[in-house]
Amino acid sequence: MQVGSNSDLRRFLLRLCLLVLPLFLVLQLLVGLKVPNARRVGSSEEFGFTIISIASGRGAISPDKSFQARAAESGGPELWDEEVGPRTVSGPNGYEDENEMTTRQGRAGRQVELQPWAAGQPSFTAEVERFISYITTPQAHCTQTLVPADPQGERTSEGLWTLCVEGWTLPAAKLQSCVAYSFSLGQKDEAFVKRMLWAGCEVHQFDPGRRQLPAPGPVHRHHTWLDWRSPRDSQHAALRDATPRKLSAIMDALGHGKVQFINADLESAEWKVLESWVMDGTLGRIQQLVLTVHLQWAGFEVGGNNAEVIRFWYSVIQALHMAGFRLLHSFQGPGQTILGHTLPDMHSTYTLSWVNTRAHH
Asked: Which of 67, 155, 217, 306 sits at a 20 to 30 Å CA gap from 97?
């Protein structure tokens, strides 16, 4: 009887094990699927991260705003630390940011001729000193100027910008034969717009981020923006949409052969836009230019190391000089960071007022 009892017990335990083992395996599988962050070692289904950097393509819109760009030694800011897969962004200024776009569309058009190295060889210190010295040294003198006004409408002795209005009678009693364009986001150009109205100019204000609002006088407002490339859609599309366009296309659409005054704060797109004006001849259609340059990072579609970037900036400015433009006024903006380097006695932004000495008034 004892032997039979032991045999029955062993069979019972064996059957119990056979029942429990499958249940345990099923439970383990369910736990592996349900527990958050659980993943199998060696799995081929892992996600990849894309680091988007201006070194090989266009970066983000300027640090404002939607994204905070970090300056990088590679020539510009990294837009995101990590992003799942490739990403395309359309910012408030209408530029698309995607590394693959440049490869897909190709780098059309020529480039400005690069100036020799400031020190005969690549040197960040030499390049930045030459560049800053050039954009802070006025080259033109004007006996009658127009500057921003204070809230009471009085002239200020030192302003963000300066325009040359020799021979003008101000304030204008009637509309004069002058046209003024202003490209700026967030209504930062209201002082310029009001001053141009006071001078009797036909004023056009461009801002893709704002809808039509009551204007401070007879201002023509357009929901479009500047680009250095021709649009992918029809060049005859209405200016009321937010598609970025080349300045020459905007002028042609509005019927302006020349523009007397242009104010532009292009949020780090200024270098490629300026280059396009040099290469397609648009500079000859501009009489005076107020331009804010941003030096915290390289800018849209500007690549290379820091010394190469500043050499390109300087070459673009030199191209303006060769086209007849002379610096009338330079205003220092906030910050002291240039391409990620904090530099004493230098600033992150400058507003430059230029006069085209070859323009016929």
From this structure: 306
Alpha helices in 230-305 (DSSP H): 247-254, 270-280
- Measure the CA–CA gap between 284 and 251, rounded to whole angstroms: 13
> How far is Cα 317 from Cα 274, in angstroms, rounded to an integer?
8
CA distances from 143 to 55, 155, 179, 192 (A): 44, 15, 21, 20
C-alpha dihedral sign at 314, 318, 321, 323: negative
C-alpha to C-alpha distance for 150 and 131, rounded to whole angstroms: 31
Provide the sign of the torsion angle of the four alpha carbons 93, 98, 101, 103, taken in this order. Answer: positive
- The values of phi and psi at residue 338, to 5°, are -125, 115
Q: Which two tokens stand for residue 179?
A: 């046209």
* pTM exceeds 0.85 for this model: no
Q: Whole-angstrom Cα distance, residue 314 to residue 135?
A: 9
Q: What is the largest CA-CA distance in the chain?
A: 129
